[in-house]
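Field log, afternoon session.

UNIT: design team B
ACTIVITY: writing a sequence onto a fixed backbone
BACKBONE:
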């Protein structure tokens, strides 16, 4: 019963009931007064008649007879004549004495000289029934002495009036009931028209709260509720517009966030993960699907143990690098604040620094390698010169021997520096290639001839099988010579005596492939992918003894790539190695190519 509708109906009915009761009571009271006045008037007229027709000019002994004859009971009114003592001496209700005795208040007033009227007096009628009466008593005085002689007492049954009043009351009650019934119907309709739009508004607001923004309520009237409805519609439209704007903005941000190469994770201050973009998910768990963990799980899982991340009280962000599988991730923890400057959470930006770290490590390793490579010949030079200075210089033979060692060590250092410079030029993209057409059958024939002497020294067989048709490649003659020399000399170096070194040319759709196949010591599966690294040597002592710097293949690889080709190696440990140089058949567009002007 909490709805406005029922409250309105009840108030309405209450109001109608109140109005009906008040007006009904007023009507009933007025009617009663009118009835009483009417009855009093009748009683007075009756008393007047008794006086005129019985007492005036009549004799007391004839009163009863005259009264019975002339006046009798009219309209239920009883007439009586009482003497000054209040005893009934004539009455319309009895034919002969004894007459009824009356004890009405009006009679006492009449005996005291005042005409009087009384209502509600209860006494029996001529048949002995107890009834309620209205009575009127008027004193009649003697003409000479003005003393009270008689009292005319008339009375009327009040029950008749009561009956008619009861009828009226019944009518009023029926009217009230009909009015209430009609009022109930009307108030229902009224409440319905009033609460209908309110209910529609409530439903609309509820729908809106559930996210259904696209709605417009019908404006049915121009009153306050109508205005409220149209304001509601305006508000819904405005909200819808704002929501669209916000979701567009959110989409835009989400697109940016999910297409960033940096990973972004945000945690709420209770540690719950609020957001993780695609990059973060890829970085942290490439094999699993969604990334969902609390801040402490995150710290624990990735073993970020530096401790700085927890101390995010100050505004500065903290950086930490941690490994995930083979990757290295750099995480920047930055707290974010609400308007009251309380910490709301932490944003973690992740960057994959694997490549950077690899380069860093390589640079460090390179510097260490260079220092190491230089230190050995330097130590040798230093110790021999010291020995010479200590007196060995006196002995010419020893001095010459020592000086030749110093000379060869100096050569080693010079080779090393030359190779390093060459690599550095590649690294800094300072190399310029003078690309020309080279016919490889002829070119290789010459190169093989130049290396024959070294192969012969080791009793090795060095054979070149030319291609039946001309093989034209595009290359810088000096650089290509350097690569081919390096590879043939490696084959000679890393093969024992009697070995067979075979050089041949094959081709596929895009490349001419020049292979140098030896029956040497071969390279283990583990070492094979690393032989192109700078300073990598399978057997350091042997390489050094043969004057190798460990940079030859690294440079050869750079040169081949500079020509748009590649250098590959296949090997079986203990059986032999095949190194293959791939030259593109088409003239490649090269990064390092010397332009026409600089050639001039
Ligand atoms: P180095 O100056 O030591 O020869 P390279 O860069 O030319 O350096 O070669 C790197 C390493 O690769 C060598 O030290 C050697 O161990 C291995 N290697 C190269 N060519 C061959 C080959 N034909 N047979 C076996 N091992 C080889």
């Amino acid at each position: 019963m909490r709805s406005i509708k029922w409250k309105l109906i009840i108030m309405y009915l209450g109001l109608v009931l109140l109005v009906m009761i008040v007006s009904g009571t007023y009507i009933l009271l007025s009617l009663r007064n009118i009835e009483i006045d009417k009855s009093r008037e009748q009683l007075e007229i009756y008393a007047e008649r008794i006086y005129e027709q019985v007492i005036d000019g009549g004799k007391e002994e004839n009163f009863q007879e005259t009264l019975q004859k002339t006046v009798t009971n009219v309209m239920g009114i009883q007439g009586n004549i009482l003497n000054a003592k209040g005893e009934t001496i004539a009455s319309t209700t009895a034919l002969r004495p004894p007459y009824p005795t009356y004890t009405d208040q009006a009679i006492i007033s009449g005996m005291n000289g005042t005409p009087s009227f009384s209502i509600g007096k209860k006494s029996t009628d001529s048949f002995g029934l107890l009834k309620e009466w209205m009575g009127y008593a008027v004193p009649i005085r003697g003409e000479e002495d003005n003393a009270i002689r008689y009292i005319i007492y008339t009375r009327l049954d009040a029950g008749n009036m009561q009956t008619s009043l009861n009828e009226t009351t019944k009518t009023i009650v029926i009217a009230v009931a009909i009015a209430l019934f009609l009022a109930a119907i009307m108030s229902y309709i009224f409440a319905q028209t009033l609460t209908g739009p309110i209910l529609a508004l409530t439903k609309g607001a509820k729908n809106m709260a559930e996210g259904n923004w696209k709605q417009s309520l019908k404006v049915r009237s121009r009153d306050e509720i109508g205005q409220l409805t149209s304001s509601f519609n305006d508000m819904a439209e405005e909200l819808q517009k704002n929501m669209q704007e916000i979701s567009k903005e959110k989409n835009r941000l989400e697109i940016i966030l999910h297409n960033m190469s940096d990973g972004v994770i945000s945690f709420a201050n209770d540690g719950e993960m609020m957001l993780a973009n695609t990059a973060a998910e890829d970085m942290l768990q490439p094999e699993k699907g969604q990334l969902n963990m609390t801040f402490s799980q995150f710290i624990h899982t990735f073993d970020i143990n530096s401790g700085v991340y927890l101390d995010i009280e100050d505004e500065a962000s903290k950086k930490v690098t941690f490994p995930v599988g083979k990757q290295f991730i750099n995480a920047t923890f930055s707290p974010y604040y609400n308007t009251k400057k309380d910490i709301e959470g932490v944003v973690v930006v992740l960057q994959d620094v694997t490549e950077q770290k690899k380069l860093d490590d390589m640079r460090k390793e390179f510097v260490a390698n260079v220092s190491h490579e230089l230190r050995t010949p330097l130590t040798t030079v230093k110790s021999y010169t010291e020995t010479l200075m200590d007196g060995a210089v006196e002995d010419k033979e020893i001095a010459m021997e020592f000086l030749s060692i110093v000379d060869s060590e100096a050569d080693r250092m010079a080779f090393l520096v030359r190779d390093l410079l060459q690599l550095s030029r590649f690294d800094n993209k300072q190399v310029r290639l003078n690309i020309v057409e080279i016919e490889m059958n002829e070119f290789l024939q010459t190169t093989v001839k130049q290396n024959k002497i070294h192969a012969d020294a080791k009793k090795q067989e060095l054979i070149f099988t030319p291609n039946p048709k001309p093989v034209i490649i595009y290359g810088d003659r000096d650089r290509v010579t350097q690569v081919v020399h390096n590879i043939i000399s490696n084959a000679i170096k890393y093969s024992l005596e009697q070995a067979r070194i075979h050089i041949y040319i094959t081709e596929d759709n895009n490349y001419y492939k020049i292979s140098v196949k030896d029956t040497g010591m071969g390279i283990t599966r583990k070492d094979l992918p690393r032989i192109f690294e700078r300073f990598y040597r399978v057997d350091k002592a042997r390489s050094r003894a043969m004057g190798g710097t460990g940079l030859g293949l690294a440079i050869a690889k750079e040169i081949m790539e500079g020509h748009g080709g590649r250098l590959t190696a296949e090997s079986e440990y203990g059986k032999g190695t095949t190194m293959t140089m791939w030259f593109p058949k088409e003239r490649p567009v090269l990064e390092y190519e010397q332009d026409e002007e600089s050639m001039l």
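LOG NOTE: DSSP finds 14 helices and 17 strands in the chain.
NEXT ACTIVITY: expression trials, pending approval
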